[in-house]
Design goal:
237 residues, mainly alpha
């Protein structure tokens, strides 16, 4: 669930930081990838597909709960009768996201010769800025919406107040997802090596595609869209 979209110039620095950091990260990664010879070998390895499965799993669950909230709620109440569906979703997402960090780190350390001291200062500064802005957005979303808002509470039986403050007043449509991708990009910039650059590039594209798909699913029927449809309908009458 997302809050309002009123733009506040006092926090627009986040908007411009996002606009600058995304291409900066992608350019740095592209520069490293362009020096490598493509090989299909990494993409045939089991640990690469474990990563893909780990990063995809949360988005599959998001789509399932968004489209079938009643079925999900019934399943959870039958399986975990003492837990609310929101709390189960939170535990699942936190566990999987923690696993993603561990699995990605293990992959990059196992397949690359990581030496953080040798990372170019420009790439390191971009990485640190990306992680900072990304986590600012993530923490701000949690502070603004709470667990119920973040974990689809309005789909699962808990009323959620409409939010128009930070970070939903920065001009960023999906601040939590933008923050998650920025944090991922920052971490990749620090740990990527020539040996893992191509795989890292594929993972970046995959992650952006997954978050984009989730955002489109939510936008197709979220409160913004519903309100606009009602408003248009009233005007026609």
């Amino acid at each position: 669930v997302h809050g309002g979209r009123r733009f506040d110039m006092s926090v627009s620095f986040v908007y411009w930081a996002v606009l600058l950091l995304y291409p900066a990260n992608l350019f740095e990664l592209y520069t490293l990838i362009s020096t490598q010879t493509f090989s299909s070998t990494p993409f045939l390895a089991w640990d690469f597909w474990i990563l893909i499965a780990a990063f995809s799993s949360t988005h599959i669950v998001y789509a399932y709960i968004w489209w079938f909230p009643n079925h999900y709620s019934q399943l959870i109440r039958h399986t975990f009768p003492s837990s609310h569906p929101i709390d189960v979703m939170k535990r699942f997402v936190v566990t999987i996201k923690s696993s993603q960090v561990v699995l990605l780190s293990l992959y990059l350390f196992n397949h690359g010769q990581i030496d953080i001291a040798s990372v170019p200062i420009s790439r390191l500064l971009i990485a640190i800025a990306s992680i900072m802005i990304g986590q600012i957005l993530n923490v701000a979303v949690y502070n603004a919406l709470g667990n119920d808002g973040v974990y689809y509470g309005f789909k699962l039986g808990r009323p959620i107040a409409w939010v128009e403050g930070f970070p939903f007043n920065t001009g960023v449509r999906h601040p939590q997802y933008v923050g998650a991708v920025l944090s991922f990009l920052g971490g990749i910039q620090i740990l990527v090596t020539p040996e893992t650059a191509v795989v890292a590039g594929v993972l970046v594209v995959t992650l952006i595609a997954l978050y984009w798909a989730t955002a489109m699913i939510e936008q197709s029927s979220d409160w913004d869209t519903i309100s606009k449809k009602k408003s248009n309908s009233n005007r026609k009458v």
